[in-house]
Amino acid sequence: MKKGFPSLISMILIIAVVLPYIMSSGFDVNADTNDISAFVTRLYEICLEREPDQGGLNNWVNSLESGRVSGSEAARGFVFSNEFTGRDLDNRTFVICLYRAMFGREADDTGLAAWTNALNSGSSRYEVFQGFTGSSEWTSLCSSYGISSGASSSTSSQNEASSGVTDFVNRLYSGFLGRSSDPAGLSDWSNKISSGRTTGFAAAYDFMNSSEFRSRASSMSNTAIVTVFYNTFLGRNPSATEVASYTSMMGNNLNANLEMLFLNFANSDEFISFCTSNGIVPGTGDGASVISDADVTALFDHSVIIGNSVSVGFDMYFNRYGRGLMGNVLVCARGSYSLLNDQTSRSAYIPMLNGVPMRARDIIRNSGTRYAFICMGTNDIYGGVVQRYYDYLDDIRSVNPSTVIFIEACTPSLDDHPANVDINALNVALEQYCNTHDNFYYIDTNTPLRDSSGRLASRYCSDGNVHISFEGYSKWISVLIDYARQYIYEQRITGNYPY
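RESULT FIELD:
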């Protein structure tokens, strides 16, 4: 992100994210993408009885591969989804589905009988699910994929787990909202948490981010705020030393203070231990992970993608796989579009809006979009390209003073035409520009698409040169979505995000 801004959130990211227990979380950097993709596809096919949509598949695979989601959390998302539970399977068929979806095999007679009898005798489906995720077979299977199993113990009784969930929900109400839970709210939140439809992390964030708590917190002292977090997450009062430790980290920005405290408490060993012993999915994560899919889509609904033939493929990808979280993003791209063509308004080589050729500055103004994603440079890699690109951006800003501009890195080439060394030099200059100009943000869309030699990875290339394959667009889109989450999160900390 932008230079200068990390100083505001470094307290949050360094203190709350780069912690020893996260460093030892067990995620395998050697995760096999193909195996993970097959695993997620199996969950779709067995649980939902359909092929995965490309956007959903990509999101699950990326989340598992990065360690943001464990194997157990992914499986829980399918097994307790409305789509699966709506099938209303009997107990025996439910167990058969677990074996096929999670273990990738048919149920053995002994296991099928034992788990079915447990359900018929009053065990909950969540308890049976925990039995699967707590098995050595599940741990071994996830290890073979290079992902965290997220296995949890299933020894706690259903009543104990239910009591723990109820206690947690009541703590969310009393701690964050300063009042008792209402019957409907208690029932709704308890059901969502106990069924695995939401995590302890996500539920706590919803309460902390509510207008009701934000209003309370605005008039509370730092000591009182820290005490709220101890009461809510850990169910106890802090010591004077603990209060002093946290208040010393807090500044004048309420949003930043709350986010820092949330990430520390929600990711703490003490809270995770409480969750796992009470049938609650902890759902640990970083700051951007609290940004919902709906928030991401809302940003892209108010965005335009502007570029040359490399960006033209977005529409082809959307037509084949759907838009997913990209929502109603507008794509204005055209073959042979270049910085020079934009400057000279050569109508045959500039993008069109509603059938009318327009310069980038006019597309942004006339479309009314709040955000513009620009990826240019492929057709301009020769003398003077940096200054030409700077003039292009200055011109866009002169007509659109309040639009947020995301400059995507010029993507690599496979055959080194244009030369990747020149592309890299341009990208360095673009990042420098964004770091010194307000409301310009640089997104590195080059590194994720290139191989170890620095060229466009062959699997991401469609023509042996610079154009992108569908797999490449899938990767590109995942980069944009991840960046959008981080951008929204950072803007909310500063209080600048209006939606």
